[in-house]
Design brief:
mainly alpha, about 80 residues, about 0% strand
């Protein structure tokens, strides 16, 4: 198989998966497809894992904000408000 063809296909696949993830996260996915994804037990487990990781990260950032004033100033400068 031609290397150029494989490389071009990889880009197409990355763009497709990227747009699919954006649609899933933003809630603009087709209703039928969204229902199938939400009913998948593996997807539910991964989603719960992601929520736990997000909570841990936010808790860690809040802790750092309280203990490290420089970190808090940098976040405010970037416009991040947690």
């Amino acid at each position: 198989m031609n290397r150029k063809f494989v490389k071009e296909n990889k880009q197409v696949v990355k763009e497709f998966l990227g747009s699919l993830l954006v649609k899933i996260i933003s809630g603009k996915l087709n209703k039928d497809l969204r229902k199938k994804i939400q009913n998948d037990p593996e997807f539910k487990a991964r989603q719960e894992t992601m929520k736990k990781l997000e909570k841990q990260m936010l808790d860690r950032i809040k802790h750092l904000q309280k203990t490290d004033p420089d970190f808090h100033k940098k976040l405010r400068k970037l416009g991040v408000d947690i």
